[in-house]
Automatic annotation (TrEMBL):
Residues covered by the Purple acid phosphatase C-terminal domain: 291-349
Purple acid phosphatase N-terminal domain residues: 1-75
Key words of the record: Signal
InterPro entries reported in the protein's UniProt record: Calcineurin-like_PHP, MPP_PAP, PAPs-like, PAPs_C, PAPs_N
Protein name in the entry: acid phosphatase
Cofactor: Zn(2+)
Superkingdom of origin: Eukaryota
Domain Calcineurin-like phosphoesterase: 83-276
Reactions catalysed according to its record: a phosphate monoester + H2O = an alcohol + phosphate
Enzyme kind, highest EC tier: hydrolase
EC number: 3.1.3.2
Pfam (any one): Metallophos
Amino acid sequence: MRISWITEAPTPATVQYGTSPGKYEFSADGTTSSYSYLTYDSGEIHDTVIGPLKPNSLYYYRCGVDSTREFSFKTPPAQFPVKFAVVGDLGQTGWTQSTLRHIAESNYDMLLLPGDLSYADLNQPLWDSFGRLVEPLASQRPWMVTQGNHEIEKIPLIHSEPFTAYNARWRMPFEQSGSGSNLFYSFDVAGVHVIMLGSYTDFDPNSAQFKWLVADLRKIDRNKTPWTVVLIHAPWYNSNTAHQGEKESIDMKASMEGLLYRARVDVVFAGHVHAYERFTRVYNGKTDNCGPVHITIGDGGNREGLASKYINPKPNISIFREASFGHGQLAVVNATHALWTWHRNDDDAAVSSDSVWLRSLSSDTACKVKT
């Protein structure tokens, strides 16, 4: 597990941890970095990897030396069942706070976020306030994220390096999956192979991301990970009037959809559109029982509000769509079945507004992986 935290003053990048409150049998040291953006200088960004850890276990930890604040987290299980909370386009509004309250009540094992985190949009102190906002949850469970357009923060001639704050603050385990970039990577958890793709870095067939994806899909062992889930930011399927015709959707789909289809990816989660939409299993614009289910879950609560207008009539491949803030839960029960539920903020957390049982394509004899 990687522990990341930020301090104003220099302090050792040391994490002390153990399995009982106040008792830290183990200690690990990491690295410290910082970044500058225009007139803003970040605090000390500490990154420390701890372990090995036991699965499905509670650990107590403190960051730095002689810190009085104690945190705790639970490691994910090593085998099914496993539950993911899924939410995109979070921001930091009252709607965001409602979303986080609902997620906190869901007893999830890991959070997956398909881009657009803080909505700092060049105003760097908003990255700090976002960190404080999500700390109660992100300190207790692993949060795995990919980037959205609001993470780019590039200013021509003035600050030409994109993703400066995102890469410095939200370092993901990309090296472990053979990726050369924090903008795309993969990992295994409890029988699920999760692939995080970058909608805002190169994705054409000559790109590093494309070549990495080909190699990563080839490595999947369906006996070990019967489920494969992909996250992008800009959706490849979308019947909302918002964000139509963008190259990050159209060109990335044209480049990579065939790869995911042939690898029998089960689900593709996207954000960007501030609404919820679930498609049937689909490939090349048509219903295909061996294609992934595409789900847009960009309704986390950002300040831009909801995308409330849809294209009518509703396409046949779109099963459920609604412009409400909320989050999703993917409960993978075993190697063959998973329950997807979407939860509106307006409803009690225990009530799902949309739900569907999914069967893994690895268990469908009609959907053999194509090489």
